[in-house]
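Morning, I've got a small favour to ask if you have a moment. I've been staring at a protein lately and its backbone has me curious. You're getting the sequence in one-letter code plus the fold written as C-alpha cells. I've dropped the whole record in just underneath, so have a look:
=====
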Amino acid sequence: MNNLLAFLVRRPTRHTTRARRAVEIPDEAPSTDAIFIVIRRMRAPLIFIITVFAISVLGLTLVPGRDEGGHTTHLSAFEAFYFISYTASTIGFGEIYPFTTPQRMWVTVCIFMTVVGWAYAIGTLLSLLQSASFQHALAMQRFRTKVQRIREPFLIVCGYGQAGRQVCRELDFQGRRFVVIDRHEGRLDRILTDELQSEVPALEANASLPAVLGMAGLANQHCDGVLALTDDDTDNLAIVMNATVLRPGMSVIARCTDARVEESMRDFAPNAVINPSDRYGAYLVLALQRPETYRLVTWLMDPRDLPLPPRYEPKSGGTWVVTSDDDFGAEVSNDLHRAGMRVVMADPEEGHPDVSGASGFIAGTRNDTTNLALAEHAKLERKDLFVGVRQQSDARASIITALGIDSVFTPTELVAQESLARVITPLFWSFVEYAVTQPEEFAERLLTNLTNRCGDVAKDRAIIDLSAAGSPALHRWLLHAELTIGQLLANPDERDSKLPLVALMLIRNGEHIYAPDDTTTVTPDDQVLVVGHHWGLEALVQTQFSDASAEYIATGVQVPETWVWRRLNRSKRRSRSRQPVG
C-alpha cells in the first residue's frame, strides 16, 4: 500500500494522556438565570411600589375620619391596606364608609403615586422582556430543559454551518437524536426551515465554553459523543479539550484546517481529526492509483442516494498542474509528489496555466467561479485531461455535472461524509480502513457482488445483532444448529432467492472478519454489518424475530404460524424498522 494512502487509514494519535483530576462538569453559565435577571432588574421598581404602598397605608391610618355619629375615627392598618390595594390596582370597589375631605385628598395623592409606581414597574418589565440578555437567558433555560428531557442516546453537534447542517440532516434521517450549538446569529433559524423529523434543542452560544457543553448534556449519561464542526479551528480545539478532559472516554470528532492546531488536538486523543484540505490529496491519489477501491469507499460513504460513480481512468506519465492562492495547493502538491508524480505549481494571477503536457490539472483557488473557469479552459486545451476543482459549497453542482469535472473537492462535504461514516455505523469506518489496505481485486469483487445483488444505488447500512436481545429467533436457532451468511441473507418468503444485502463485516468476540462469503458460519452473539436495499433490511427483521422464518431459511422446512403470532411478528417488524440504523 502506498504510504500516502496509509493516511486514510489512521493518522498518528497520542493514545497516552496525562492523569487528570476528576471535576464536575459545569452546566450553567454565569449570570444566565432568567429569574435572577428579573429580580435584579425589577428590584428598584418593586422597592418604589412597596414604599408607595407603605406610605399610602400609613397616611390613610393617620388621617382622621368621621362615623355616622360624627365622632372622629381612624381606619385600622388592615382596612387601610385593603382599601389602598383595590384602589391602587384600579379595581375600585368604593369607600369602606363615607370618607372625609382630608381622607379623599390623601387617597387622591396615593392614586397618583401608585400610578407613577406601576408605570415605572411596567416600563422596566417591558424593557427587560425585550433585552437581549434576558432573551438569551430564557433561551438557555429552555435549551437546558429540552436536553434534560432526552431519554435516548444523542450527539452534541457544535456548529450548524454547511458541514454541521449536512451531518444533522442525515442524523435526523437515520432517527438519531442530537443537540446543536452555534455562536453565529441566524444560523439556528435554518433548523426550522429544514423540517427535521424530531425536535432539536438548539442554542446560540459559544460551544468552546465548558459550561455551554455542560448545558448541552456533556455529563448526561445518554450523550454518545461530540462533533466539533465549527468554522473556527481554535473553537474546535477548545471543544476537543473540554470534551476529552471533562468526560474521558467520550467519542469526539473534530474538523480542522490548520496543521498546527491539528497537532494540538491530537494531544488530547480525540477519535478523529478531519482536515479536509489535507485528506483530499490522499483521496485523489487513491482515485488515480486504485480507482475501484476509490469507487467502493466513496460510494458507500456518501449518504445520498447517488448511483455508483464511473471508474476513473488513471493517466500515466506527464505532470500535474496545481493552481491555488492559499495552502491548499501546497498540500495537494505534496500529496501528489509523495505518490511519485511530477507537480508544477501555477499562480492564478498569471492567467491560465499551460496544461499542454499535463496529465491532470487541479483548480484550487478560494473562488468557486474562478476554479470552474480555469477548469473549462483546461478542458478546451486538452479534452482528455483529468481535471479537479475546489468548491466551497455544492451550490454549483448542476454546473459541475454539465462541465464533466472529474474530481470535485468540497471541504464541508468531505467532513460531513467522514463524520457520518464514523458516527452512524462506527464499525463501517473500520471496514473503510481495511478496504484501503487491500489489493484492487478486493474492491472489484465486492463491487461486482454489490451491484449484482443490490444494484448501483442501494447502500443502506445496518448492524445485525445476533444476540438474544437483537435477534431472538436467530439466537435460539444458533444455540442448537448452524447458520451461514448465505442462509442469513436469504429471503424469508422465498428461500432460494437472496435479499438485496451484502455482508461487509462479521464481528465475533472483538475479531473483525471482512467481506465474509456466503459459506461463513455465524454463531450466537455475532454481529454482521450489511449493506443494501432498505426493503431488504426490513425483510431481514422477519427472520430475526420469527422462529418459523429462522427455521425456514436454515432448512427449507415451512413451519406454520398462528394468526396471533403473524400479527405480533408484523408489529415487531414495523417497530424495529423505525429504529435508528447502527
In short: The chain is about 50% helix and 15% strand.
